[in-house]
Amino acid sequence: MAKAHNTWAHTSRLTGVLLAALSVPAAAAAQELGSGLKRAELPDLLILPGVDAQEESSPPGVDEPAPSKSPVRPARLQVAQSPAHLVAAAHQKSRDAETVAEYGQILDQCRQALSAEPADEIRRYAEKLSSWALNRRGELLAQQGEEDAALEDFEEAVRLDATRWRAIHNRGVSYAMLGKHDLAIADFARTIELNPEYANAYFNRGELLYEKGDFQTAIDDYTLAIGQSPEDAVAYNSRGHAHFRLAQYREAVRDYTTALRLDPKFAAAYVNRGDLYMELGYFSRALMDFQAAMQTGVELARAYQSLGWLLATCPDERLRDPAQALRMLAKSQELAGRPVPAVLDAMAAAHAAAGDFKQAKKLVNEAIHAAPPQLANQYRARLDLYLQNQPYIAAPLKVQTAARPVGDTTTR
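Above: the chain sequence. Below: its structure as tokens.
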């Protein structure tokens, strides 16, 4: 089952391992870990003694009252380019910095101050301000797709301030994007130690545990994320995937339905629930969900792919419509912008359902050559049917615990 997530800026998809037991739409969807790792949404600004620790919406203040005597007060500056002057200027710039270049200027001023071997209080402040600026610049670099450069900034931010949990969390996202999942999981765990109320850290760790196949522990993390952010539709959607992989189908449908109650325009959640209904043999419900996904206004290739597969292979002849299936699959291919093996396979099934076995054999062979081994074996089995002039008719999963789906209370 695929996942989709709207992050603050920086989305990611990690490729999971396919399960051969899944049918085409579900197996193709399972390639995407998908929810997209979440970075910090808000600036992580320096908090000094005497400044309210909850006020992180303004930059670090060197001129606020502090218990100790502070040499970083612009009104008392004696030397224009003293370390205190440089740090004060960097602090002032941090109040409205918004670009990579502006954060770079803050860092340059802090480096100049540090190179002058300032007093300990100035040095500590310059390091913390540098850590803050590095984290903010790293977030912007990540938004621009410069993941390697972003990671360098996050790593340096953590080196300068080992308690800067936002930088640790962002470094974890970068590690995950670069395939360093164990390091990412460790960073998310450290983030949770420093800030147990930060929902994104639980969610992101759950995503990587899902990727590693530890579905139950992933469910535990998604549940903790939901506890911190109970209106997060995506967390419910992701937990639904993990339930699906553990054959906990009622729980999966319930989570998808909750996601849709929270976000009625969540097209991917409609497709995910529709795929599950189709797997379980509730074809009319699946059809309704695929159509609902299209009515959200989101052009989702998977919605057209799943509907095309249903119309091509449904055991219920009243729903089977090869011509309409081919139209849906052509749209899916158009949205994908490239040949997709699962779509080629579904097109082959549609042609076979219409009695055009020559075209079915051609398309399924194209799918076999383009697909990973797990899917290619499924496609070969269908090719054997087409060689005997037989269509492929999907069979629902044989499960004992899914006699009836949970009620659907979603407003369409």
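Residues 1-35, 41-79, 400-412 have pLDDT under 50 and may be disordered.
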